[in-house]
Amino acid sequence: MDRYRGARTAVVVGAGVAGLTAATALARGGWQVEIAELGPPEATSGWGLCLTGPSLRALDELGLADTCLAGGYGMSTITHVDVNGEPAGEAELPRLIGERRPAMVGIARPVLHRILHAEAERCGVAVRYGTTVASVDQEEGLVRVRLSDGTVRKVALLVGADGIRSSTRGLLRLETTLAFHGQMVWRALVPRPRWAAGIHQFAGKADTVGLVPLSDRQAYVFLTENGVERSILPDSELAPRLRELMEPFPGRVGEIRSLVSESESVVRRPVLTALLEGAWNRGNGVVIGDAAHAPAPQMASGAALAVEDGLLLARELGRRESVGAGLQAFVRRRTQRCRTLVETSAAIVGLEQAQRYREAYPLADSCHRLMAEPA
After folding, report:
1. Whole-structure pTM over 0.85, yes or no?
2. Given a cut of 60, is residue 1 above it in pLDDT?
3. Which domains does the chain have, with CATH numbers?
4. Distance between CA 133 and CA 94 in Å, rounded?
């Protein structure tokens, strides 16, 4: 009943990292793809992210790794600094796309969005802005998708790539729980200090600070605030409060703290994780990326899972005679890998909260090396 009928058609919900990658990979495989994106057509706003080795490996298969490296800041090390401001070790991440290219790249979200969006459009993907999925019905091997603007599509495949609070997940009756881990994470764009040629993580007696280069001129600072309830602060209080939280840190954090005063872009978000138990698909609908598995930011690998999802979804569908078989193969292939990353990220949160940094660092390093294995 679920063999392909006519054209290979797909609706992807969400034009983020997972959605744009999936749409591009599907279009290259001969699918006619349309993206429904609730937001406006302008490039996504936001701060930055790290494309670790698995991200670059998947993007390299799509011919986009070098473009991302040119648009961001390539690096290969994570430097750990203890509570006294002294070096506590350096992790060299595996270089998965060749010894002459970096292990990872820090990149501004708008830059990454423009790269992925341009490639999707080049592959013939249509993006409908200001729309999302309103209802879903399975009809004899097809999915009847009603969009929020009232239009209806009957397609062979529905992909929910609409984030941790995915509406598609609910419409497919794939329920999960969002877990709050007693942390709020702060982020701010700052000028890149000259000494920051890789990621730096600074242990604190209460919180943790980090710095990720995004370009020759720009970086973003993050701070994980421990032992707090979920709350919202007025925008006017964000920068002063972030500087206050950074004040107890010795050494180079003082220099980073002074740069926050120049930043007009500070955000504070709860640290949440989500992991779908069981299938990620129902009928010919599936969820990917944070809609299926959202790790805490400590492993800096949420984007890696999202990019891998998009590429491998298209690959497994291309190997099978039916959508259903392709989705089942995709979920089997991805479940354990994604579970390991989500659970490891949550474990690192707990170690940070207990100031057990000497255990957190090797755990993160071992997980990065596990993620370096083929997906």
Report:
1. yes
2. no
3. 9-73+109-177+273-371 (3.50.50.60), 180-272 (3.30.9.30)
4. 39
